[in-house]
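Sat 14:20. Reprocessing the chain from the morning session after the first attempt stalled halfway. Input below, unchanged.
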Amino acid sequence: MSWHTKTIKQISDALKAKQISSKELADYFLQRIANAKDLNAVIDLNEAKTIEQANHADALIAKGAASPLIGVPILHKDVFVTKHWKSTACSKILSDYVSPFDAHVVAKLGPDGAGMVCLGKANMDEFAMGSSNENSYAGPALNPWDKTRVPGGSSGGSAVAIAAGLSPAATGTDTGGSIRQPASLCGITGIKPTYGRVSRYGMIAYASSLDQGGPMAKTAEDCAILLNAMAGHDHKDSTSLDRPSEDYTAKLGKSWMPGEAQLLKGLKVGLPKEYFGDGLSSDVRAAVEGALEQFKKMGAECVPVSLPKTELSIPVYYVIAPAEASSNLSRFDGVRYGRRADQYSDLLDMYKRTRSEGFGTEVKRRIMIGTYVLSHGYYDAYYLKAQRIRRIIAQDFQEAFKQCDIIAGPVAPTVAGKIGEKTSDPTQMYLEDIYTLSPNLAGLPAMSAPCGFGDNGMPVGIQLIGNYFSEASLLQLAHAYQMETDWHQRLSPVAQKGGAA
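Finished this time. Tokens:
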């Protein structure tokens, strides 16, 4: 049986029907990980602990436990701290760090929560800073559709693992598109919830007002099942929303307007003219427009909208995010935890050597930018102005949502590029985030779902953006689309290799 081609729902049903045990599943996926080391998607394993969790899940299933996630394997992005696996944020400065506690998300999904079985930790850009997974201290993860290409970042390892069939599920984080962009470039589904929907406790911070955890999987249905377990108020996180969670699977398969034969009848999909300009490649445009035509066939109405401050999202983001990063990363000083320089003359020299040796190039770049924009004489000119424009960007979305229910467009302007293609030009790399940054600046939910293929047979995703707390509606639309198409079922060359071997 090719269990790596199955969805979470299918695996859960098989576990309950005793067609396979959780331990057998864990062994199966651990073997697939071992046989795909060249992808560099998984950077830390603890097989004994994985099997222990699987045996625990089998015991719960035998007792009739009803959670839809019990016994299902998962990988955690290395930005989430874990007790039994290293938590390094793919940085040399944390290369040997093992956390004494689990992140809130890890705990909610784990043996004492939803009952999932942790396979290990997934590769990522160092401290979640990047759009290609090339900034990892562990080296880049490779796109399973073409190993010469990037998988996107920063949740690149999570996306690669799902697309390659190394895990049916993974956690990701999205600060400026880091769930949606790798999901698009690797042909999987991923959703960034409303800011505050998923606890940030135990998530190694990059930019605190932007970071948000979310699920990554093959389908919208799988993401809904995962989000049901992940979402909810956490008193340990001051940014966690004290708002009741909902059942994100409740609307799946239902018509937008009850009683209508067409699933999307009554839905208005907004198309921002700024998302379909000259910077969008023709192959990505064709795939996204094909998805929009399918929406129309299913009863949706596409209406033009405008998000006039879209072009300002890049400079605003790359002022605010580095500013917050420079503050958050000041804790990595060689004193409290993490790596310390081997040789130094005094305390100041120890700080300098530890940080110089421990941080990678992109992290240093963003710390320097952040320190500069927060410095005396520049705070008002850069940081304060960026925060004001951020508010205007959020207002643009609210004006657009007066005309539509959901906004749709591309995730990235091109398909996955070649490894090393843009590493020498950070500005070009930053431009890859043009369509994904604005929802983070506004705190809105957004997701990516596979919608076709572009040049060289590389996957393309369509981005769906909703108003605050509309995750269920986004998942409803994506699931309806996936009921009528098979883009999400296409297998990468690596995933086409059957069995654990």
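The mean pLDDT is 96.
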